[in-house]
Design a protein that fits this description.
The chain is of the alpha+beta class. It is built from four helices and six strands. A four-stranded mixed β-sheet has the order 4-3-5-6, covered by helices on one side. Strands 1-2 form a two-stranded antiparallel sheet. The radius of gyration is 14 Å and the shape is globular. The relative contact order is 0.17. The N terminus is likely disordered. Belongs to the glutaredoxin family. It holds the Pfam family Glrx-like. InterPro entries: Glutaredoxin-like, Glutaredoxin-like_YDR286C, Thioredoxin-like_sf.
Length: about 120
């Protein structure tokens, strides 16, 4: 992701919503520090019915992670477009590739649990 990306991250904190620009280091730090949740990045475009299906599959887990959507068709995301244009939906978990084309629930749950255990051990 480029530093001038317009991607937005939503942080839901005790009945308030914080909106931070993903290009803002302070915004990313505030979100992750205040929620201590892993960030699941969805590389997508509009329309993307497979992306919609993937988000539905992840619905039961939504309180356990922060969803960050990156529209690969935006000019500032052209590197992601060239990398993933034939593969969306693509997911990264905490900045690392996790899965593409469809949600692998077992893989997602395993990796999410590992991150949660790691985070719990650090606090």
């Amino acid at each position: 992701m480029t530093e001038n990306s317009r991607t937005m991250i939503f942080c839901f904190l005790s009945r308030t919503v914080q909106l931070a620009s993903a290009s803002s280091l302070l915004g990313r730090l505030l979100c992750s520090a205040s929620t201590n949740k892993p960030v699941l990045t969805l590389f997508t475009k509009k329309p993307c019915p497979l992306c919609d299906e993937a988000k539905e599959a992840l619905e039961p887990y939504k309180r356990r992670f922060i969803l960050q959507e990156v529209d690969i068709t935006l000019p500032e995301n052209s590197a992601w477009y060239h990398k993933y244009k034939y593969d969306i939906p693509v997911f990264h978990l905490n900045g690392r590739f996790l899965m593409k084309h469809q949600v692998d629930i077992q893989k997602f749950e395993d990796q999410l649990t590992k991150l949660e255990m790691h985070n719990d051990g650090n606090h």
